[in-house]
C-alpha cells in the first residue's frame, strides 16, 4: 500500500507536469484559433484493468494526493464564492476557451484546469460540461465521497441564481410533451421520437449498462402507462382462454432473470452513410447496451392461454401501447418456435437491472428476445397474439430487412427479404476514439463484441496497421452459457505502440462460436436502410510525439 | 415442339461453325506449342435452366440432328473398326494434341472432334478422356439411349485388346489395399487415406450429389464391415441399459429421411495456401456435397439407452470402426443438447440417396449431424457414449479448430479455441472456372451456397467487377425449412458481358438468415490449419473476342 501510495504521488506529479504542458498548448490553440483537442492524461495504471478497480484506485489517489497538488485553488475558491450565475451562463462554459463549468446542487465550479486530471479521463468529465454533475454522479457513485467534494470545493466560483428555475414549456398539443427527462450524457440522434446512444467512453465502462444511459430507440411518443390499470391482453388459442393480465398477475408467473444485450439493427449506420446515403438515424457505435432483465417467460404465459407448438409455421405478434396519430401501434413478431422454446428464454420483462422498467424502456412491460434484433423487443407491451403469418406492422414487413447493395428505393421489394431476427456478429472499438491522439509507448484499446442467436464471441482480433497483422484481445465480462450467449463480451488489448509510429489504423473484428466473422469493408454490405452494419470497426488515431 | 426442333437445328448449325473455327484454333495452338484451353460451346439454352432439362433437350437434339452433322465420320468409323488397342494406348490419348479417346465396353472411340460439341460441355466429357465412359454414364443415365450409342459409333476407331486385363497388384501389407474402387471423375487430393472431391463442373450439376462423386474425406483406411455381424454399441446412462444394436435393430427405430449438405472444414483450403502455407489437404471448392440420408434418430437411440437432457453440459462421443496401426479409432463428439433435440434431426444414417451407405461414406452406419462440420459425422460408427467432456480424440481437440491469423505452430494453444461445430456461411462459383475463356454476349454463372446451424441462405450476390457492383443471383434447389435449412441452395445468374470487356473478375458472396455474410478476403481469416475458408469466391476469366 505504501508502494502504491508512492507510485501514485509520482504519477500525480507526472500528471501535473503534463497539465502544465497542456495549459500552454491550450493557450497556443486559442491564439491560433485551432479547435480544442482534449489530451488524454497518463493517469491509468496498467496493473489494474477493471474500470471499477481504476475508479477505486483513483478515489484513493485523490483523497491522498489532491491536497498536495491543488493548494493554489483554495484561495481562489474562497475569493469567488459569492458570485451568482444563471443556468444560461453556466451552460455557455463548455470549452477550454470559455472555461469549463459544472454545477452541484446550487454551487457553480470552474473545472477547466481539472479536466485533464480527471481520473476517469477528460472526455467523461466533459460530458457534464455546462450542466449539473448529479446525473453523472448518480451513474458513478464513487464520486459521492467527502474527499471528492473537498477536491471539488477548491474549484467553486459561485452560486446558481436561486430564482433561475426554468419552467419547462410544455406544449400540450405536442405528443412528445410527456416524454420522460433523459440523462444528459446521451448522444441524441432524434428528439421526436427520442433516439439516443451512450457515448463510447461510457458504453463499455460497465458490463451492465446503467439504465439512464442504456441506448433508447423509440418509434413513437412514450406512452404514460398507469401500472394499476395496466392490462396485458393475450389472445387465447382455439380451445384455450384469452388472458387479461395485470402487473400482479404477471408477477405470479415464475420469475426468470437473464443478462441480455440489445442492439438496434441500425447500430453503426453512420459508417454506411459514409459510403452512400441511407435512410435512417445516424447511430454511431452506441445503439447497443446490456441489462439484467427480470420477468415472466413468454412460453409460460402463452401456455396458460392454451398455445403450444404446432407443425405449421406460426408467429407471435406483439403490439405496443405507443401509437401514431392514426392510432396505429408499434408492432413486431417472432416465430412461435422461438417463443415456445424454454431454451430461447424469451421474457415479458418488468425489471431492468433490478428496477421497474424506466419509461423509455417500456414501463411497465416489454418483450426481451435474447439474441434477436432490438426491433422485436416490443416496449409498453399491450397485446400478444399467435398468427399464421408475421405481424403486418410496417416495422416487421417494410423495415428492418437487409438487401443487396444493388437495391435502391426504386427497385426494393420488401417481400423478397426475410425480416431481421438474429443478428450477425458485431464488434466495435470504444477507446481510443477516431481522431484522438494517444500517448506513445503503450496504448490500451477497448471495445465490445456480441453475436446474435445465442452464439458466443470466442475471439476478437485487433490490428494496429489497418488489418495487415492482428493480435488477440483479452475477453472481459461474463463467460456465456453454451447456445445462450445472450450478452456481449467487453474486450481490451494493451499493446506497445511501434516506435516512430505517427498514427495508428486500429481495427477490430470478432468471431462467434459458429465461426462467423465480420466482413472487411462496409460498401459490399451497404443497404438502402443502413441496417446490419457490422464490417470491421476502424479508428484512426494520432500518436503524440 | 416443331419450333423447338427448328431452333435446335439452327443452333446445331451455329455450333458446327463454332467447331470449325475451334479446330483451326487447336491446330494453331499445337503449332505454337501453347497449352490446350477448351472452348465452351454456345450449346446452352437460356429458356431452360435446370440441368436435367438441359440434358433432356440435348438428348433429343442429338437424336434429331446428329445424322445431319456427322455423316463424314461414318466412313472413318467403318474403316478403322478392326484396329486393336491396349488400355495403355487409350489412356495416353487425353488431349487435342494426342487425340481424345474413350472406351465403352470393348470398343475404342476417338472423340477429339466431338468434345466441343458435347451437350454437357467439353469439360465434362474431358473427365472421361483416356478411359471408360461407363462410370460417367452411370451418373448420367440419359446417355444410355440408342441415339447416343449411334452417335458414338461414328467415332469408333477399334477394339480393346481382349488380353489386356490389368490384374490389380494388391499388397497385402498395405492397410489401404482393401479400400473400395472409386469413380474416375473424383479429383484426388490424397490416395492414402483417400480424399477426393468432385470437379466443379459436376458438383452443381445436380442438387443431390450422386453417391459415386460425393466428396470423400477419410482419415484412415476404409474398414470392411460385415453387415451381418455389425453391432453398434451404445453405452447406457446410469440406471439405463447399454445397447448392442444390429443393423436390423436400427431399422426397427422410426426411420427419418432428410436432405443434408456435408462440408469439410477444409473446403477451399487451397485459397488459404495461396496466402501462406497451411497444413492440410489442398481442397478446392468441392469438399462439399449433398445427399438424402435415411436412418434412425440419434435421440431415439439415446433415449432407449436411458439418456436424457441434463442441466450440466454433456457431449455425445462417437467412435468409428476405422483405426490407425496403434488401434486408435477416429472419434468426435457433439453437445448432448444437439443430440437430444428432435428438431436438430441428428441421424444414425444407414441410407444415402436411397442406397445402403457406400463403403467410402461409412457403411453400414454413419452419424449425420445437420448444419455441423463434416468431421463430426463419424463414419463406420462403432460406439456411442455420453460424457461430461468432449471426445478426447485428436480430431476433436487438436484439429478442426479456428485461430487468429497471428497464431503459428509455435504459439498455437488448441485448448484456447472451441472445436468447430456449426460452420459459417459459404458459397462458391463452379461455372465458369478460373482461367477459363467465356463467350462474349452473355455469361451464365453457377455455384452453390450453404450455411451451418440450419440457417437458410437468403441471397447470393454476384459481381463481375471484383466486388465493386453486385447483382442478385437466382436461387435454385429446394426451399429449406425455417431453422432446418440443412441443405445447400444452387444458384445461377445469366448476365450480359459488358461490351468491350476482355476479362471478368467474378465474385460471389452469400447471406444467411442470421444475416451473416462472408468476409471479403482470405488473409484476415487465414489460420494455420487452413480451415473455415469462406471468403468471397473469386474467379478470373477471359472473354473471347
From TrEMBL, chains A, B:
Keyword Signal: no
Subcellular locations according to the entry: Mitochondrion intermembrane space
SUPFAM superfamilies associated with the record: Cytochrome b5-like heme/steroid binding domain, E set domains, Oxidoreductase molybdopterin-binding domain
Domain of life: Eukaryota
PROSITE patterns in the record: CYTOCHROME_B5_1, CYTOCHROME_B5_2, MOLYBDOPTERIN_EUK
GO CC annotation: mitochondrial intermembrane space
The EC number(s) this enzyme carries: 1.8.3.1
One Gene Ontology term from the biological process aspect of the record: sulfur compound metabolic process
One Pfam family, short name: Mo-co_dimer
MF-aspect GO terms: heme binding; molybdenum ion binding; molybdopterin cofactor binding; sulfite oxidase activity
InterPro entries: Cyt_B5-like_heme/steroid-bd, Cyt_B5-like_heme/steroid_sf, Cyt_B5_heme-BS, Ig_E-set, MoCF_OxRdtse_dimer, Mopterin_OxRdtase_euk, OxRdtase_Mopterin-bd_dom, OxRdtase_Mopterin-bd_sf
Cofactor(s) needed for function: heme b; Mo-molybdopterin
Statement: the UniProt record of this protein carries the keyword Kinase: no
Keywords, alphabetical: Heme, Iron, Metal-binding, Mitochondrion, Molybdenum, Oxidoreductase, Phosphoprotein, Transit peptide
CDD domains: eukary_SO_Moco (cd02111)
Pathway entry: Energy metabolism; sulfur metabolism; Sulfur metabolism
Chief localisation class: mitochondrion
Domain Cytochrome b5 heme-binding residues, every copy: 82-161
Catalytic activity from the UniProt record: sulfite + O2 + H2O = sulfate + H2O2
Free-text function comment from the UniProt entry: Catalyzes the oxidation of sulfite to sulfate, the terminal reaction in the oxidative degradation of sulfur-containing amino acids.
Oligomer and partners: Homodimer.
Protein name, UniProt field: Sulfite oxidase, mitochondrial
Organism for this UniProt entry: Callithrix jacchus
